[in-house]
Amino acid sequence: MRTLVVVIGLLLCGLASLAADLSGTWSADVVLDAGNGTAKFVLTQKGDALSGTYTGALGESKVAGTVKGNQVEWAFENADAGKVVYKGTLDGEKIKGTVDYGSVGKGTFTAQKK
């Protein structure tokens, strides 16, 4: 019985890591205190690490972040806004969460994988 529990646990862990692959292009609808906009992210996931690029109202920047199960976080630096941080929950090919655009303001986002 103990072996069965261990095997099931390992399978579930494996499935969780497979389900959380964020590699690809994402379009994020962003709602901030200062207004609304759309951001594009091209992300690459290797294990729990994320890297990629942001393109949007603040120009273009390199992003870095992490994936822990279905919880994701990534950030980039911008000369005008400062540090920009996205935190969200992955649900299929959507991510919903909060965003802190430094001096520009805080808000929410919904991203869809393209």
Give me the Rg, rounded: 16 Å
Strands across the major sheet, in which order?
1-2-3-4-5-6-7-8
Nearest-integer average pLDDT: 88
CATH third-tier fold name = Lipocalin
Which structural class matches the secondary elements?
alpha+beta
Order of helices and strands: HEEEEEEEE
CATH architecture: Beta Barrel
Flag low-confidence runs: none
Q: Would you give an account of this structure?
A:
- With 114 residues, the protein is α+β, with helices and mostly antiparallel strands.
- It has one domain (2-113): Lipocalin (Beta Barrel).
- It has one helix at residues 2-19, and strands spanning 24-32, 35-46, 49-56, 59-68, 71-78, 82-91, 94-100, 106-113.
- The protein has an eight-stranded antiparallel beta barrel.
- A hairpin with a 2-residue loop joins strand 4 (59-68) and strand 5 (71-78).
- The longest helix has 18 residues, at 2-19.
- The chain is globular and about 55 Å long.
Provide a compact summary of the structure.
The protein has 114 residues and is of the alpha+beta class. Helices cover 16% and strands 63% of the residues. The chain has a single domain, classed as Lipocalin (Beta Barrel), CATH 2.40.128.
Features of the shown structure:
8-stranded antiparallel beta barrel; 114 residues; alpha+beta; 8 strands; Lipocalin
Indicate the topology:
Blueprint: H1 2-19, E1 24-32, E2 35-46, E3 49-56, E4 59-68, E5 71-78, E6 82-91, E7 94-100, E8 106-113
Antiparallel strand pairs: 1-2, 1-8, 2-3, 3-4, 4-5, 5-6, 6-7, 7-8
